[in-house]
Design goal:
By secondary structure, the chain is of the alpha/beta class. It is built from 22 helices and twelve strands. The chain binds a DNA duplex through strand 4, helix 13, helix 14 and helix 16.
DNA sequence: TCGATCATGATTAGGAAG
DNA sequence: CTTCCTAATCATGATCGA
């Protein structure tokens, strides 16, 4: 049974679905089969609504009604958009629906007394700009110095260095630069990628060939042409603004357990279609253009941006690029607490009325200082006991609470979260990162760099039906094993896991978890993604039949907004390791193709 | 040397106001 | 449209004491 599980398991997944048939279907379960094609083309699959006469585009209205939207919403959406632009109308409807179903900010406020819902107006009318101490006026637009530091290097060397930094070999890089002398770095990497793919083809289809020369072949030519086409596209007058990826609002991706969306299918570029399945993650609020680049390297798959505040009591805005099916997702049970109140019940007693937070902000790698919380306590103690503190004090305190994710643990007493609490909020088992000689500082760091398990598990849940006997996973930048924990909690057996993680502390955590949960499969640990080459991959894959899933969240150090020192984007010292992900993924993809 | 502690803004986006 | 405000943000490096 298990012998060739991979082949069998793929049985009901249609990797080769034609693009034309990919559709957006309604969540409305089985009773309604009306669907709308994404590109302004309505398709009715049960002919009932075909010939009803109506004032507007009645067919469209019927379709939308069938998708579960109200007449009012549809009318509003059509009015706000061009009647002919189906895509925009559907998008508007989705937004309305998401807003309508968003219970968090409105309904979760426990007592909706007289003037609570007017808080915004109150704030603005009572607004007082006498702040405590900081009235810093930032001089905007002071100077626009462009750092010319790197210009001292010859251009050729500079580019070569960048490419080497991305993990490409000097040979690859210089070969590409010889072929395309005037190309940009992006174009060069496209070229190298194509060359790597061609090389992989050569390795597995013409085994005897020497590997040094870039041989021509159908596949390579095709890829080369594709890279060149992209080049032309960029050189043409297409403004770059058009390709900038924007973050959705609300940030719910293709849907969450509480915000079911209508989108249950999507179009995937041919190149993205597996095997293997892949799942890539990074911070949503990266510098401009970063996600465009990431997406370009991952077959132009559109990122799914999700804020984990729709899964748990803490925000976590992340982008995920994957080729997983997106219909029939299901959440981990039990559902985690979704408000601070429910997640940290002991804080309720001390939570002042004027702190309106119901969700925590992003859990980061560091915590607020004791000096800060102590200062706030002293400031609050000066206030009258029977009165709320002055509005300017409130404003200042709340600002610090939001900045440092402080919670109320006593009268006038604020505190940062405990590692245990962060563990819980992120969906890890209790004490997951505790013990084994791990310092408290390192716990915060490891947790702050991790997945939110419920969020990731929701996306990965579709794998349960596809791999009922378990799967083989390649886990890059594993950290403390967020993906592994998610799959385990989903009840998906882990057969072979190759986990690559640079931090020994984190590897210890995962190994310890692996043993404690009585895993039946094999865990193989590597330290450095840069040393994971084709030969090594081939060894692994030939021993257990290829990877079903490649997961990874590459370092965000140089992308994250909290970084004051080295927010250098994708070329940063650590974040440039991103390029290892597509490199390895492409290798896996082509080894899989060779094995088939 | 290790761990705990703490000070250190900028880059985005979005909305309101002009 | 521009300008100004609010808001959020998987961090780094220096220092100190054990």
């Amino acid at each position: 049974m298990d012998g060739n599980a991979s082949d069998g398991d793929y049985g009901d997944i249609d990797w080769d679905t034609e693009d034309e048939l990919e559709i957006q279907g309604g969540i409305v379960p089985s009773s309604c089969a009306n669907v709308v094609a994404p590109n302004a083309e309505a398709v009715v699959t049960n002919g009932e609504a075909s010939s009803s006469a109506g004032p507007l585009n009645s067919k469209l209205v019927q379709d939308l009604l069938g998708m579960g939207f109200s007449e009012q919403m549809i009318a509003k959406a059509i009015k706000e958009n061009e009647e002919t632009n189906t895509e925009l109308i559907v998008e508007s409807l989705l937004t309305y629906k998401a807003l309508e179903e968003s219970p968090d900010e409105l309904n979760s406020v426990p007592q909706q007394q007289h003037s609570i819902d007017n808080g915004v107006g109150q704030l603005s009318s009572d607004y007082d700009d006498n702040f405590l101490d900081d009235l810093s006026e930032p001089l905007s637009g002071s100077d626009s110095e462009i750092d010319e530091i790197t210009s001292s290097l010859p251009k050729y060397d500079k580019i070569l260095l960048s490419l080497a930094n991305m993990g490409y070999s000097i040979e690859e890089a210089s070969a590409a630069m010889d072929r395309c002398p005037e190309a940009s770095i992006l174009e060069l990497t496209d070229f190298i990628r194509a060359a790597q793919m061609a090389k992989a083809d050569d390795i597995f289809f013409e085994e005897e060939k020497p590997k040094l020369s870039l041989n021509e072949g159908l596949k390579k030519r095709k890829l080369y042409e594709l890279a060149m086409r992209k080049t032309k596209k960029r050189k043409g007058m297409l403004t770059e603004e058009d390709e900038v990826i924007r973050l959705p609002n609300p940030m719910i991706g293709f849907g969450t357990p509480t915000h079911s969306l209508v989108v249950t299918h999507r179009m995937l570029p041919d190149e993205a279609i597996g095997p293997p399945f892949f799942y890539y993650e990074n911070v949503a609020l990266a510098p401009k253009g970063v996600w465009d680049t990431i997406s370009r390297f991952l077959y132009d798959v559109e990122p799914e941006f999700v804020d984990s505040k729709y899964f748990c009591a803490a925000a976590r805005k992340r982008g995920y690029i994957h080729n997983l099916p997106i219909n029939n997702r299901f959440p981990l049970l039990p559902l985690p607490p979704r408000t601070i109140n429910d997640a940290l019940p002991l804080t309720k007693r001390w939570w002042p009325q004027w702190d309106k937070r119901t969700k925590l902000n992003c859990l980061q790698t560091g915590i607020g200082s004791a000096k800060l919380t102590d200062g706030i306590r002293k400031a609050l103690e000066k206030c009258r006991d029977d009165h709320e503190p002055p509005l300017d004090v409130q404003k200042c305190v709340i600002e610090q609470c939001r900045r440092w994710n402080l919670v109320w643990v006593g009268k006038n007493k604020l505190a940062p979260l405990e590692p245990d609490e962060v563990e819980m909020l992120l969906g890890f088992p209790r004490n997951h990162t505790r013990g084994g000689g791990i310092s408290r500082t390192d716990r915060y760091k490891s947790l702050g760099n991790s997945f939110q398990v419920d969020t990731v598990a929701y996306h990965l849940s579709v794998l349960k039906d596809i791999f009922p006997n378990g799967l083989n996973m390649l886990s890059l930048f594993s950290g403390i094993g967020g993906a592994e924990v998610a799959l385990h909690r989903l009840g998906i057996p882990l057969k072979n896991v190759v986990s690559v993680e640079i931090s020994e502390v984190n590897r210890d955590i995962v190994r310890s978890w692996w043993e404690q949960t009585n895993q039946k499969g094999n865990l193989i640990h590597l330290a450095d993604v840069q040393q994971l080459n084709g030969d090594l991959l081939e060894q692994f894959m030939s021993s257990f039949g290829g990877f079903d899933l490649v997961v990874g969240g590459s370092p965000c150090n140089n992308l994250a907004g909290s970084n004051r020192v080295s927010r250098d984007g994708l070329q940063g010292e650590h974040s440039s390791l991103f390029y290892q992900y597509p490199r390895i993924l492409n290798l896996v993809k082509f080894i899989m193709k060779g094995q088939q």
